Amino acid sequence: MAEACNDLSGDGLVDLQDRLLHRGFVTPKRNVNQIMIQDNAFINRMIVFTWPFFSLFLLSQPWLSNWANNTWYDYTATYRVYNKDASVEGDYTRKGMCDTPAEYMHCTDGQNFTELALKYRGKAVGCGCGQGVLGEGLCPMTSYGYTLSDFVSTEPSIAAMLGLGFFPLLGTWKNTMLINRLAKPSWFFERVHNWSMLVFQVSYVLWGIASDCIFPTAHAVLTVAFLGAFLAHWVITALICIACMGIANIESVVTSYVACTASGIIALGAVPRIFLTLNDVIGFALFPNWNRGIGSYAFWFAEAGGLSLTFGAYPILLIAVYLFPQYSDLNNDGTFDEGEAELFALFPGTAEVMTEE
Asked: In the chain, where do the E strands start and end?
């Protein structure tokens, strides 16, 4: 009789599954909707937590590159080799993580790379393609100045960017699906909404694979593709929200401001590159070269600032709703329903209180 009572799964056996049910691993009577809200709130907190680190990493790259590369340019791990009988043959090291002779490195802003390397590293070496903690930062390596692509051309740097951007991107996908569910756009705009995000995701992954110093042409094309698709996606999100809920809705306001501000920053930052491209087309130097002094940072700042804003659209939205919960009624039905709780809640308890209200 005791064994029959312990057969919780009803399969005639008191097996491992039944024993685990007595240890608190599962509570069959829990409310599924509350579990969903709690899990989504946890993901939302991770999105809000990781986005500042993502932005900080992008916006500190010139300084982080110089500090890290100047400090560890000659670092090398020790590689142990074993003989066939498993005895140690020896421990070996390499030249260092940055070993490109300075004569092969050329500053595009008029500075002398060899002089810079000797001044800050005490050795005439540079961080060539794929070398260093971040890409070379002693001076700009691209014709129109520093670029985000140059800084993330190393494995640690691109991994940090892709890793720190995971949760903010997950939030964008989540926001896309739930906006479709709550706002009920037309079949056409629902497809455009989803596909713009998919085009961004695919081109962003390929952009990370095609390093600018190995596949420069593909990298340049993919940069335009993923930035354009992401900005287009947020513009479409804003238009859907405005059409459904009006311009005063929190999602409409945040996405509109993010899309407009990011577009403006990226457009202004592209001016140095546009000037040089136009000079090449017309055959003489009509427009100025801004790759000097602080102008060398214009293109990089546009990329870093634009990505920080677009990746931050959903975290900013979560923070705004947390601070101003009265704007969380996304579909204007007078209640904070489970869909809105799934979209906005940062803390399960908050979601429950708002739902009751």
From this structure: 79-82, 88-92, 100-101, 125-126
